[in-house]
Specification:
By secondary structure, the protein is an alpha/beta fold. The chain has a domain of 171 residues. The protein has 13 helices and 7 strands. Helix 1 runs antiparallel to helix 6 and helix 6 runs antiparallel to helix 7. The protein is elongated and about 95 Å long.
Length: 290
């Protein structure tokens, strides 16, 4: 059973959503194909007759109506089990997308893709990988063909720039960042999240981490403040702010939550403390007069 999607998988899906922004192509991510939640990373749906107005990355030149993608980041290996899972997803998806209960769409309406950050050496030792072009391979399984895209081997070309963002190679990551042209307003924040995932990876080289840190600093300088705030948690937004600023606009009950009685009194303004003292004095006099 596949686990919950990992950050790189989610970002991989979001990048395809951005790539097809404004076209007749629909992208669905983290598609749940069973009651036990076996996630398929990405489905690219192209049912219209309109041509796609931009060049696709190598290996994706001829899309079918339904294109099923599985993705393995630099932290994972693309192996034979991954391909078996992808075929299983295809079987489920084909049943779910059929036009009638007793009618399946033809197999030609579907294409299967496995994208991996690094070359699948283990898989290549078990099955025949037919190379179609630089970084693009094909595996035959019964009547199906699975296109395998090895990101680290793709040429440095603008139409491949989006995939190079997932290569985990300093040279290719730098190329992707410099040459990928966003199609939606949120792409800069998507790139920020992707770089943060790289910066937190324990398997990254020091050189790559330093490049990522510099890239994050440069990206943060270019992002509007409101876009940055949208991506921060409440704790991150308040970090480093003076206490007065953190409390500004907060309801009184929220300001006092979790404080002891003494701390709550000290938090009051001088006028409020005087008013409280008078109230307590009056309450005391009233109780003595009873």
């Amino acid at each position: 059973m596949m686990s919950e999607p990992q950050p790189f998988h989610r970002l991989f899906g979001l990048s395809w959503m951005d790539f097809f922004q404004g076209t007749s192509v629909t992208v669905e991510t983290e598609v749940d194909l069973s009651l036990k939640q076996q996630f398929l990373d990405v489905v690219i749906i192209h049912t219209g007759a309109d041509p796609i107005p931009r060049r696709l990355p190598d290996g994706f030149e001829e899309l079918a109506a339904h294109n099923l993608l599985t993705f393995k980041s630099h932290q994972e290996a693309l192996d034979s089990w991954t391909l078996l899972e992808l075929i299983g997803h295809f079987v489920n998806y084909r049943k779910q997308s059929r036009p009638a209960l007793n009618q399946l769409r033809p197999e030609s309406d579907y294409r299967l893709f496995a994208v991996c950050a690094r070359f699948p050496a283990g898989l290549a030792g078990k099955v025949a990988l037919a190379q179609l072009s630089e970084g693009v391979y094909e595996v035959r399984a019964l009547t199906l063909s699975i296109r395998i895209i090895v990101v680290s081997q793709l040429p440095q070309a603008e139409h491949n720039a989006m995939l190079h963002l997932f290569s985990a190679s300093e040279e290719l990551l730098q190329y992707g960042q410099a040459h990928y042209h966003p199609y939606s307003a949120d792409t800069s924040t998507l790139l920020y999240q992707l770089l943060r995932e790289y910066s937190e990876g324990s398997d990254m080289t020091d050189k790559l981490k330093e490049f990522v840190r510099r890239s994050i600093d440069e990206l943060l300088e270019s992002l509007p403040a409101e876009k940055l705030r949208e991506r921060l948690s409440n704790e991150e937004r308040l970090k480093g702010m003076p206490a007065e600023e953190r409390l500004k606009g907060m309801p009184a009950e929220e300001r006092l939550k979790g404080l002891s009685t003494a701390e709550q009194i000290r938090a009051l303004s001088p006028e409020a403390r005087e008013a409280l003292a008078r109230q307590l004095k009056n309450d005391g006099n009233g109780s003595n007069g009873e």
